[in-house]
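Trying the structure run again after the queue cleared.
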Amino acid sequence: MNINDKLAALQFNKSNESHLVVDNDICMRCSEKPCLFICPAQVYNWDEKKCLMNIRYENCLECGACKIACSKKNISWRYPDVEYGVKFKNG
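Done. Tokens:
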């Protein structure tokens, strides 16, 4: 089973509020943008035309890799509120 098959098997309970916040001005000055590559669920997407970081927080696996990888310390990351976020299944 590949990573995309595993990700498709997860369930998410989407909150109306993001638990991931970035400062787009800092993202704009970041040449590496490691968040685009470190996230296994491809939550982050840089819009070159708008100079804007799009965050698909509803797909977040809550692993925290993005916060660790961000050399600018620009990702404000917290767990989603109770009853929201990813639901892992055993097996």
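The chain has four helices and six strands. Worth checking whether this holds up in the mutant runs.
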